[in-house]
What we know:
By secondary structure, the chain is of the alpha+beta class. It has one domain: Immunoglobulin-like (Sandwich). It has 3 helices and 7 strands; from the N terminus they run H-H-H-E-E-E-E-E-E-E.
Amino acid sequence: MKNGRLIPYIIIIAFIAFATFVGSFIIRLVNTPINLESDDYYKKEIAYQSHIDKVKRSAIYKDEFKIKLVDKNVLLIIPEDLLGYQSQVQLFRPSNNELDQHLTLRLDSKKMSIDISSLQKGIWMIKINLEKGDKSYYFEKALDI
């Protein structure tokens, strides 16, 4: 008979424990930072068609434009046709966008290198946008540093 009197208390304690668990779970979800690829991700999504066009134009250079990891440098091998182009190089860290770096280079020789000795070890994406007049190209490669 005494066990019958404890059942309502056990149910109330179980309900309070469940409510506490759900509440703490929701608080943790709300306070978890969400890292998008970039701060203006949605604006970039709308302009994505121009990026698709760049990638299609770049396909003719896929065997000639090379991005290689050599020691603590990224070596760029540039085709003759693309010399003189202004380039925006993004060193993109997929796991932490706070480590991203942006460089501006003028492609004036067939081989160029970028020092990456200061980058943390892990997976990095090298994204290169080339522009000259109305022509633009895009190249990227994932590297494990």
